């Protein structure tokens, strides 16, 4: 593993000394996944694999090489879809732990414990059951947002950006589906950055934003469960504050690419500007996500499909267009405290330099 990124570099903005990535250079793809059938679902985001089983990877003699190449692929394509997975929640947990470690997460980072996770859950603290039946009773982000809007696009978010050390990778396996409906969409934060003018990018690179999930306190009371205030996967993630300040533009250490890092679900304020200016800037950035269908990929689930995505550089939104039950298991790993390396490139710059 490469040395931890130096915190003293004058090109680094943000981050935290206790939560720096353990890699100092982007990871390189070695080609171990080339033999598996796959296709890119759009030019900028999404790749689907068929015949690639997580359970087989975990038992393979080339386990670490395969997972490293998967980390590179997930981080560059934003989200990877693995069809028809025969994998248990325990194997998902083991896979998440290997994925985040091989991709260079800080030694202080582990798997996330969501503040609303019930203590004593049969699947353990680190696996969240995503259930439409639970959400009908009042469950987290979507319940909060549905009280304020009737626009489906209001649900776009990046997982747990309200934590001081948010998620690097997340995975969701759907095991119960309605007959139709329940698709999930992802959008590329890399592509959003590339759509900024140079002057706007320069402005945003000097700003931070506050991410806030204090509404989870209301949800915990509604559900009758105490909020989890102990260590939630990182020593920096504890207590009941549920707010964090992150750079508006961040660098993904696995690719070395810049991404927009604000989301409608949790980002409440751009700091250092007036509230009016903050509202204008945030609305513009949110609109870049919701009004550019060519930055998005939409995935129609089949039973036992699994998606693995990079929360540092994507946003996602579930589609609540069904009545029947829909359920799945989700695991989130924690990465580094978000930072911006001013020397890092945009996705388009990096790819054009390769050709």
TrEMBL record:
Compositional bias ranges of the Polar residues kind: 1-22
Signal peptide: none
InterPro entries listed in its UniProt record: AtsK-like (IPR051323), TauD-like_sf (IPR042098), TauD/TfdA-like (IPR003819)
Keyword Ribosomal protein: no
TauD/TfdA-like domain boundaries: 39-322
GO molecular function: 2-oxoglutarate-dependent dioxygenase activity; metal ion binding
Region (Disordered), start-end ranges: 1-31
Record keywords: Dioxygenase, Iron, Metal-binding, Oxidoreductase
Keyword Phosphoprotein (UniProt): no
Name this polypeptide is given: TfdA family taurine dioxygenase
Source species of the chain: Penicillium canariense
């Amino acid at each position: 593993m490469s040395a931890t990124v130096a915190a003293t570099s004058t090109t680094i903005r943000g981050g935290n000394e206790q939560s720096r990535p353990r890699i100092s250079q982007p990871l390189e793809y070695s080609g171990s996944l080339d033999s598996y059938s796959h296709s890119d679902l759009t030019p900028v985001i999404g790749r689907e694999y068929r015949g690639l089983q997580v359970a087989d990877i975990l038992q393979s003699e080339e386990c670490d090489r395969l997972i490293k190449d998967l980390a590179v692929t997930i981080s560059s394509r934003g989200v990877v879809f693995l069809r028809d997975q025969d994998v248990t929640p325990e194997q998902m947990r083991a896979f998440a732990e290997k994925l985040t470690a091989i991709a260079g997460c800080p030694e202080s980072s582990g798997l996330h414990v969501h503040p609303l996770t019930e203590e004593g859950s049969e699947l353990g603290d680190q696996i969240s059951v995503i259930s439409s039946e639970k959400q009908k009773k009042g469950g987290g982000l979507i319940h909060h947002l549905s009280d304020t809007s009737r626009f489906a696009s209001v649900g776009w978010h990046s997982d747990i950006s309200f934590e001081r050390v948010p998620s690097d990778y997340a995975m969701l396996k759907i095991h119960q589906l309605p007959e139709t409906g329940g698709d999930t969409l992802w959008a590329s934060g890399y592509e959003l950055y590339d759509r900024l003018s140079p002057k706007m990018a320069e402005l945003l690179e000097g700003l931070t934003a506050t991410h806030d999930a204090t509404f989870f306190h209301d949800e915990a009371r509604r559900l009758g469960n105490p909020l989890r205030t102990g260590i939630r996967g990182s020593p920096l993630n504890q207590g009941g504050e549920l707010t964090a300040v992150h750079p508006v533009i961040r660098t993904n250490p696995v690719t070395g690419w810049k991404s927009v890092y604000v989301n409608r679900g949790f980002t409440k304020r751009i700091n250092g500007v007036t509230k009016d200016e903050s509202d204008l800037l945030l609305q513009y950035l949110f609109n870049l996500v919701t009004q550019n269908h060519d930055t998005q990929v939409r995935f129609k689930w089949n039973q036992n499909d699994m998606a693995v995505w990079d929360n540092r550089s994507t946003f996602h939104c579930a589609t609540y267009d069904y009545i029947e039950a829909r359920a799945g298991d989700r695991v989130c790993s924690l990465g580094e405290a978000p930072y911006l390396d001013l020397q890092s490139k945009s996705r388009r710059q990096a790819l054009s330099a390769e050709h």
